[in-house]
Design goal:
Layout (H helix, E strand, L loop, with lengths): L7 H31 L1 H8 L1 H12 L3 H12 L16
Helix pairs in contact: 1-3, 2-3
């Protein structure tokens, strides 16, 4: 019947931890947006200007980009890369 009473400090840390966890959970969908913005240059180089911008803009939309990337893992790219030229060397 001995109950361990939590100290005030412990209660504050516990409550504060939940507040931080809630805030982080709300920002997670927008993490994909940041990644898509960072990788837009890579998409443009591999897919071309129009297809690269379209691909990156779809990826930047929270939840839509997640669903698109999940389907692309199984099916392959929706927007194909531009063909590689035979005359250039990649360094």
């Amino acid at each position: 019947m001995t109950e361990k009473k939590q100290s005030i400090k412990r209660k504050l840390v516990h409550a504060g931890g939940w507040q931080v966890a809630k805030r982080v959970a709300k920002t997670i969908p927008f993490g994909g947006t940041v990644v898509a913005i960072v990788l837009v240059g890579s998409d443009i180089r591999s897919k071309g200007l129009v297809k690269g911008v379209i691909n990156s803009s779809i990826d930047a939309i929270p939840f839509v980009g997640l669903a698109k990337n999940a389907v692309e893992m199984v099916r392959g790219d929706f927007l194909a890369d531009k063909p590689k030229s035979k005359g250039t060397k990649v360094k």
